[in-house]
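Structure record:
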Amino acid sequence: MLLAGCFGGGDDGGTAETKAAEDTSLPMADVHPADADAVRDGGTLRLGVSSFPANFNPVHTDGVASTAPQILDPTLGSAVRVAEDGSWSTDPDYATSVEISDRDPLTVRVELNRKAVWQGGTPITSADMVAWVAALQDDDYAAAAPPAYDLVEAVEPDGKFAYEVVFEEPTADWPAAVYPTLPKAHTKSADRFNRGMSAKAPSANGPYVVSKIERRTGTITLERNPRWWGRTPRLDSIVWRIGEEDVLARAFLAGELESAPVTPATRADLAKADLRASRGSEWSHLTINGGAGPLEDADVRRAVTLAVDSAGIVADTSERYGVETDPMTSVALLPGQVGYRDTAPIARDVAKAQKLLARAGWRRKDGTGPVLRKGRPLVLSLPVPDTRSGAVQRAEAIAEDLAEVGVRVKVTTVPGATFFEKFVIPLDFDLTTFAWQVNPFDLGDTKRLFTPIDSPMNFTGKASKATGKAFDAAIEELDDPKRADAIAEVDTVARAQASILPLAVMPKVQAVDPTVRNLGPAALAHLDWTTVGFAAKKGD
């Protein structure tokens, strides 16, 4: 769970102030929107995806880090629907009301849509929510639960179709913890939860159900849910085809798929295809281990952040994906996300970096060569995974930048399969770079990147009271404008600590048949699968 966002579909990698959210280079979603009546009834949509799910349970620690959430998305729903900017509203297919009923303690009342049922026809009830929370809070269940679930004190049913979720303390992430993803039949035992969906899909509650899983042919077929109570979905079926990215690209060009992911490796092959592009939910960064050695000194860490040409890395990311992407200037919010404050990225300042190094005792002889202290040069290790993610290129660029201020960086390419296990988790590095992911309700997860010191997601070797206090203030603030102010303070404190340098927002690029509507990449928004389909009329 904790490393689920570290490797995405494309972990890659101006000093001028960023533009306002509405003027930035990429939209938050690019789906060629159309009203449902402009989408024809019927048809099969064929989509490409990179691998079979490790576990079809989308909230299992193995499943959440695989393609399971993507493949199962048309089959699952929630009481909370997320919009393009990360804001949310109640989804009437699943609940008639989701609202705070008390602030002390924080209590959220959910009134369920009585028509909503699981795939077998069993109603979705308060008993499912009670069982769901109990499972996620039980260590025997290998669940990748959002941190907000840790704060749920009780689920109090009010009859069969309503309940209240009571939190131990206020959390702005509460919308992530108010609706069951799985029925109580799937959570009645740890064995059922952990192993019961390793080869078959969970019970659906969305407009589609998984009808066939064929490992031999590398396909997973979804069909209309015969018990679906909402608007009739436009498509008859959805077929996921599993393959390597170059195989999927060729299949798209041959007319065998309506959509395929575009990565830096396949961008040239798909350059003439109809492409849709949006900001992604992942962002590259430079993480600095300040737990030992020269980087314990905050001046040295700040010098490193000032020496890195982050604008150059953004430009390189844009070139690799073929679309102009954005600098990541916050550790908590994407540009364009609700609450985001327009902030300039850290501008490269070689002269200031050298002054900070000198203040920390690291000086160059005659202003050239490596910086020295007590006759020893400053040498930093930077391991990176040997994947096609762009991390190696990014690391080499960072090494060149730091060489300009006299800091030598030893870039070591290591197997991607053991990168975290052998280097990141044991903090066997000075610098490293990969990607983190933003979700709509994950301030609690973002806090874990910085504090406490023993957090399994904190790879900075540091934790400060100021950082913890700033995050707590943001997490506990339920008022949207005040929370935006608190998150701005989080970013100020994070910059001062100089442990994580945000670099670039990873774009999402997708080749999509021009006749397909309401489908495409999105940073945060939930797709409405009932409206996905083919244009009703040619040219629409």
